[in-house]
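2024-03-11 09:14:02 DEBUG pipeline.ingest accepted 1 chain
2024-03-11 09:14:02 DEBUG pipeline.ingest length=699
2024-03-11 09:14:03 DEBUG pipeline.predict start
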Amino acid sequence: MLMKRHILLGVLLGAAVLFSTGIQAQTTETYESLMRSGNTKFASKDYISAKTYFEMALKQRPKDAEAKKKLDETLVKIQQDSQRQEIFYSHLDAGDALNAQNKYEEALAEYEKALEVFPEDKYTGAQADAIRAILKERKDKQDAYDTAIAQGNTLLEEENFDAAIMQFEIAKEIFPKDNLPKERIAEAKRLQSLYNEKVARFDKLMEEANQLALRKNYDGAIQKLNQALEIFPNDGQALSLLQTMQGSKATNDRYNAYIAEADRLYEAKAYKEAKTQYQGALSVVAGDSYATEMLSRLDPLIAQQDAEEAARIAAEQEAARLAAEAEAARLAAEAEAARLAAEAEAARIAAEEEAARLAAEEAARIAAEQEAARLAAEAEAARLAAEAEAARIAAEEEAARLAAEAAAAAEAERQARIQAILDIADGLFADENYVEAKKKYQEVFAIDEGNAIATAKIAQIDGIFAQIAAEAQQRYDAAMAAASRFMTEENYHEAVGQYNLALVAKPDDPEATAKLAEAERLDNQKMAALRADYNKFIKEGDKQYAAKALDKAVENYAKAADLGLGETYPIEMIDKINRLIEENKLYELNAEAFTMTANTPRRFTFNPVDVASRRSNYVVIKARNITPGKSFPMIVSFGSDSGKNGGFVLAISENEEEKTYIFRIGAQYKWFSENNNWIELISENDDVEVSLVMISRSN
């Protein structure tokens, strides 16, 4: 934007203004004297002054038919003079343009048409004479000149600037007075400067791309290379480096994917799976120090895990073996008890049969002995039964002990597994990776349903999720509301940013997605329209700049900059024009800043400007409104020893910031045709501070 540059263009107002202090002093004259003065000025063809006198007469007699008639006649004359000047300048400008293009026959015809309007015009006559001389001189040199110009133009199109300048210098030596070679040389140097600037920007982008590549910031490097290729689309080095960077980016992305997954598995203590991923990273970037270092850490950790797993399996196997041995011992004890009971029963039966056989032989004696034997057998059987029961109980106790040890070992292993999962989950929780942490806490329930720690942590995570969701909803609502306001204001670019913020808060939200697409469409549409306007203003500004109509060029460049596209070119061109005007100044009429009292004229004198440069003259005035709040006119008039010849009006800005006013005074015929030697300023109604009054030229 140009808010800080304060560039305003002087505009010649159509309203009548009082240029002469002498006229102002006569505001008390009678109607008759005003009419006489008006008629005198009309007769001398000073229609601007005549118009002022007739208007003053009408103020005294608003309905006077004679004054109104004379004013109307004067306005017609002013309009006719303006039309004659327009006709004259149209032929003169056409002649100058054709002259600059080396089209001398056509230029001479235009100059002759201009002389038909103002036959005594010295500049036009001189230009016509110069062309006639050139046409006479160039008959023998034309071919060599045309060849040099054509070769120079071809070399210029090929951007071979030094060779082009050399050809234009040859043409310049052939026709030293011809402006075309000089202008082509200047244009070649300008294009060479622009080309060198492009080369400098290109080299800077290439260097930045290389630096980013060294830091493995391939995305940034690719962006810089694409910007470089916008400057030189077919540059082989940039294209080759872009292809290399794209390949390196792909490699780096694969490497980073392996490393990210490997690091995740490493943190989760899935060491064997992590090893596979680190090896994958090495397959992409051979010899990578980080992957190599992590692999060296993994082997002892994997060995330790394997040992712990083997110990766990051995403990489970030992517990199973002890349980089996206990069960076997119990069964053996029961079998032994059964065998002893059977033997005791068999012994008892045998004893009874023996006692029955002997009873017949020794009834009385044997009866006593049989009773004693029976009692002894029963005692023996009782003893054997007691031993068998004791063996059974001992076997059951051993089996129970072994089973308890196995259960204790299994419970310890279960608790260890639970704690391991809780440790991983706690780590994820500490890293604020709540989604994965919740999954880990939920894994605990497969081992210990209703685990209090996991239950509490999951509840805490759910609360965090609820808070995050609420905050996300708040951000979403705020972004959508802001985006809606921007859409209403047709500020689509800001709306796009807000819709993107809404999608950060609620990814894939259908409403925000749809409205983002619409905002982007409208923004692109608006930007396309702005870009079209920008290109139009720049094209017109460049055209006016080439034609040395610097005030019109500044106007168009200012309009382009005010579109807010962030382009530096219009600002650079305005600065360039300001520098050009400063470098080509003819007179700086004031030595220091001064304050103009309202309605009090301030005149500056100078030697007349050489007629050869008058057409390209500008008046530059820097002024500041001392009493801001309203705008008012400043009348700028010019003239010679014989009187006033013309002028224009500047509208002083209503704010108090200093403004630079540029007016192409060379467009006024009376400036061009007369030897003007003074400029006068009058500030109407309000005081104004003036820091610069300068006459300059465009070349």
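2024-03-11 09:14:41 DEBUG pipeline.report Residues 483 and 495 are 4 Å apart (CA to CA).
2024-03-11 09:14:41 DEBUG pipeline.predict end
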